Amino acid sequence: EVQLVESGGGLVQPGRPLRLSCTASGFSFGDYAMNWFRQAPGKGLEWVGIIRSKAYGGTTEYAASVKGRFIISRDDSKSIAYLQMNSLNTEDTAMYYCTRTYYGDYVPRAFDIWGQGTMVTVSS
Amino acid sequence: DIQMTQSPSSLSASVGDRVTITCRASQSITTYLNWYQQRPGKAPKLLIYGASTLQSGVPSRFSGSGSGTDFTLTISSLLTEDFAAYYCQQTYSPPPTFGQGTKVEIK
User: Fold this and answer.
1) Which residue, among A38, A2, A4, has the nearest Cα to A116 in the 3D structure?
2) If DSSP codes are grouped into helix, strand and coil, which group holds residue A113?
3) In chain A, at which end, N or C, are there fewer CB atoms within 10 A of the end residue's CB?
4) pLDDT in tens, A7-51
5) Which residue of A has its CA nearest to B48?
6) Strand partners, B90
7) pLDDT, chain A, mean
8) Is the distance from CB of A102 to CB of A112 less than 8 angstroms?
9) What percent of chain B is modeled with pLDDT above 70?
């Protein structure tokens, strides 16, 4: 079964870091670009960032709201994508979803597999 | 960033009703438009990509149309499991952006 499972969420104080993991199974992880999205409670969906496959340089892009604070990385040998979140603030409180790019080698065009999400709450 | 506007924000409908949701982009996005369904407490699910292509496994009562700036999602005959939130998303120009969502509720 093709699956993504996020972990690492929880309660964190403002200014502190947190690292999320996304473990993939059922597909050739290294062939796909992986993305992170988030959804604040009761709000809409926001793209956080992407890490492309090694075939496309493993490059990353980020939303303006997290650029310079968040870092996406991947370990293809373990089929895991990571989201390192630094300098967290209350506006980062959200459910964080890991997703697979369905098609679009460099610019992602659709996202077909979503994890169940992991909740991050930033509060003192 | 490209702004996506959905209408209505919510609607009440009955099982068996035909429902149409519209999505408008702030500039032309050709057909780089996706639709997602999100049930309460669940992750979004890709329904339609490329404005009109049904994702594998999605029932044929769902359909999408449009190009340029104006798009529609139609559910031909609502079932109980279709009561959910629906989001459009453009992927024409990074970053991918979503509409604010349409909540389909039971009348």
Assistant:
1) A4
2) strand
3) N
4) 999 999 999 999 999 999 999 999 999 999 999 999 999 999 999
5) A110
6) B33, B97
7) 97
8) yes
9) 100
